[in-house]
Amino acid sequence: MTIHNISHIAVIGAGLMGHGIAQEFASAGYQVLMHDVTDEHLQTARTQVEKNLKVLAENAIIEEENIPATLQRIQTATELAIVVENADFVVEAVTENLPLKQQIFEELDAICPPHTILASNTTALMPSQIGVNAKRKDKILNTHYFNPPYLIPLVELIRSPDTSDETVSVAFELLTAIGKTPAIIEKEALGFVGPRLQAALIREAFAIVERGIASAETVDLVVRNSFGRRLSVAGPFEVFELAGWDLVLAAFEELYKDLNSSSDINPLLRQMVESGKLGVKSKEGFYEWTDEKVQVLRDKMNQALIQQAKDV
Ligand SMILES: NC(=O)c1ccc[n+]([C@@H]2O[C@H](COP(=O)([O-])OP(=O)(O)OC[C@H]3O[C@@H](n4cnc5c(N)ncnc54)[C@H](O)[C@@H]3O)[C@@H](O)[C@H]2O)c1
C-alpha cells in the first residue's frame, strides 16, 4: 500500500473537527465522504466548510474559483456502510468517548475494505485502546489535528505497538501531500505531546488562581504578551537552549518544589463545572461571555492564524 492507492477519504463525525478535516482533504483534491448521525449535522458541516473556504479565499490563501469543485468533492451520508465502502483512509472524529470510538472502530474494521487505514482524531486516547476490538491492528493509528484543522498545520501521528511502519509511512506521506506538517509520536501515551503539554500548563494556571497568586485575567495577560509570543516561532527546548541549561537548572531547583504536581483534578476546576460555569457554553467561566465577545475572540484568533498561514 502506498499513497498512490489512496483516492477516497471517509470522515466519521462531522462536528467542529470533522468538517475541517474533510475540507483539508477535499481542498487537496481527494474525494471525501462525510458521515454523521443526522442530515442536519451534515448540512451544518457543509455550510461551515463553505464559510471557511470563503474566508480563506478572502485572505488569498486559496483561489475563490476553486471553491465549487472543492465542495463538490465532499459527499455526505448518514449510513456508515455507504461512506466507507470505497474508503482507502478513514478519519474518525466523533465525540471523545472511549466505548463509542471502540465500537466504531470494531464496525469500521468489519465493513471497510481490507486495505483501509483507520485513523482517530482523539485528543488523548491511545490507538491501542481505540482499536482493541479490531482485527487490523497494524492499520490503526491516531492522526491528531488541532483546531481549526484547516489553519493549524501540525498533525500528531501516534502509533500503537501494533501499527505497521507501512501504515505510519502512508499516513505521513498523505498528510504531507495535503499540506499538513505531520509529527510522528513513536511511543503511544495518553495525550501524546500537544495535549500533555497543554494539560501541564492549565494545571499550573489553575493552581496559580486557586492559591490567589494571580487572577485568571492576569494569567491570560501574562501568557499572551510574553512567552506565548515566542512559542509560535520557537519550541520550549529551543527557547531554553538560548538561555542555557545551567541557568535553567539553577532557576528550577527551588521553583519546582513549589509547582503543582498533583494527579488530582484541581478543586477549582471541579467547582466551576459543578456550578455550571463552563465558559462560553454557559456564557460564564472566569469571564462573562456574550455572543459578540465570543465572536471578537474567535475572529482575533482566526486572523492571527490566517496571518501565520500567509507568512509560511
Ligand atoms: N475540539 C477540539 O479542539 C479538538 C481538537 C483535537 C481533537 N479533538 C477530538 O476530535 C473529536 C471530535 O471533537 P469535536 O470537537 O469535533 O466534537 P463535536 O462535538 O464538534 O463533533 C463530534 C461529532 O460526532 C458526531 N457523532 C457522535 N456520535 C457519532 C456516531 N456514532 N457516528 C457518527 N457521528 C457521531 C456528533 O454528532 C458530532 O457532529 C474528539 O475525539 C475530540 O477529542 C477535538
Question: How would you characterize the overall build of this protein?
Answer:
The mean pLDDT is 97. It contains 14 helices and eight strands. The two termini are 31 Å apart. Helices cover 50% and strands 12% of the residues. It has 312 residues and is α/β, with parallel strands linked by helices. It has an eight-stranded mixed beta sheet, with helices on both faces. The longest helix is centred in the last third of the chain and has 21 residues.
Features:
312 residues, eight-stranded mixed sheet, Rossmann fold, 8 strands, single chain, alpha/beta, N-(1-d-carboxylethyl)-l-norvaline Dehydrogenase, domain 2
Major sheet summary line: 8 strands, mixed
Helix content: 40-55%
Please tell me the CATH architecture of the largest domain by its name.
3-Layer(aba) Sandwich
Number of domains: 3
For the secondary structure, the number of strands is 8
The neighbouring-strand order within the major sheet is 3-2-1-4-5-6-7-8
Write the CATH homologous superfamily of the largest domain.
Answer: NAD(P)-binding Rossmann-like Domain
Text of the CATH class of the largest domain: Alpha Beta
Low-confidence stretches: none
Work out the strand percent: 5-15%
Give a brief outline of the structure.
By secondary structure, this protein is an alpha/beta fold. The chain contains 14 helices and eight strands.
